[in-house]
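Agenda item 2: FE2/S2 (inorganic) cluster complex prediction
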Amino acid sequence: MVEQPKIPEYPESYWRDSVKQLPHFSQLQESIRTEVGIVGGGIAGITTAYLLSKQNVKVTLLDADELLNGTTGHTTAKITAQHGIIYDEFIQHFGLEKALQYYQATTEAKELIEKHIDELGINCDYTKEDAYIYTNSDDYISQLETEKKAYDQLEIDSDLLDDIPLDVPLKSALVMKNQAQFHPLKYLTELVEEAKNNGVQFFENTTAIDVEYNKNPSIITKEGNRVTCEHVVVASHFPFYDRQSFYFARMYPERSYVLGAKMKQEFPGGMYINAESPTRSIRTTTLNGERLWLIGGENHKTGQGKSTIEHYNALKDFANNMFEVEEIPYRWSAQDLTTIDKLPYIGQATEGEENVFVATGFRKWGMTNGTIAAKILTDKVVHGKSKYEDLYSPTRFQADPTLRKFTSINADVAKHMIKGKLEFGHRGIEELSAGDATVTRINGKRAGVYKDKDNKVYALDTTCTHMKCEVEWNSGDRTWDCPCHGSRFSYKGDVLEGPAKKPLPIVDVRPNK
Ligand code: FES
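Presented output:
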């Protein structure tokens, strides 16, 4: 029997690995003043900084980690207005006009990316591609037909097909023509360079923990420094600043997985996603002159479901069943946030606080949603308004069906709050092998224990510092993930992703005296 290619032992994003010259910046060491303070160095934050710098606005951008190491560094980087099967749903929920606005906004985002590539001469493997949703399930054929009718109402250039260029089993497919893809980090590192030349100050390893609201709001950092601004833009994926807006209860986090694989066969072009579950997304990029296929999918709520390494294995099995896999040099995962009505939250973060903005809830379509967020927030800062502000307003409220979703998100949280506290692993610390983790009792208390490859043990209190749910071990990424609102912690306890702001406390593994 021919042995199947293995997945890599450690996750690594192809995007980050293939950009050798990632920009690096120092930590903020003092209190400063600026016009616009941006928190978050992903596509939304960096594009906002770039657009504002072109308008001669003085900008400071802070990132808790390194720039481009969050969801933007781990995306599949499709630049498309085809955000799954969504337009019929948007027409039903919001009406034709708003659905059309969403399509126009995402198309404008695509054009803005193209404009930046042209004006800065960026070499970022940008290619025009058609985008396909396909299905091999009878249940989804009529949904694709209904979605096609929605496309027609919105005058989207599209076709309903019974065959697509990619050789996968299917019964129907819907193509949206003239979409695109690129290498997001090659694109964004150029935007960072240009923004820096225009005077934007970037700081890394600088965690924003609060905003002191005022006519001139101040971003407060973990080290106690303040960035006093005229406007604050919170583009930190999960908003670190909530102020009774309850973003954690109005969005849910999902993880998804990507394999970067080399195949024996030719790729016919195009970007593909299936309609049914489990999700399978396929596109390619270039690795040393060869095609690298990006096979994505396996979404699930953060901290819930099976061992995360099994999700990578499921993608590997799919790739092996469908194609001739030669090698799998990369695997990585990403976390995305979806709002209760599926529209991102972009605009004024909280009622009554006019100069603090938020951009979040991009529902896996961060390249276009992050770019339009940057345009909207730039227009708000420079002109005081944006034509899209009502559509994306974070303070909007739709009674139905969002209320049901709101209730179900929070009922799910309540379930995990209780369930997690009662669950323990079956292994003690002595039984752990290197690279493995367990949840056990240490001195009578629940503790998460990880043993690294040198057999060094790290024990943490597993109670999430956000709202006290119990974190679960993520074997694929070697992190502790919270099933309630998606906070993630390193095996040393540091916060990798909010809403939690404080690390998990370290537990002493020595017995009580
Ligand atoms: Fe809210 Fe953990 S993220 S309780």
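Discussion summary: The longest strand covers residues 325-339.
Owner for follow-up: CH.
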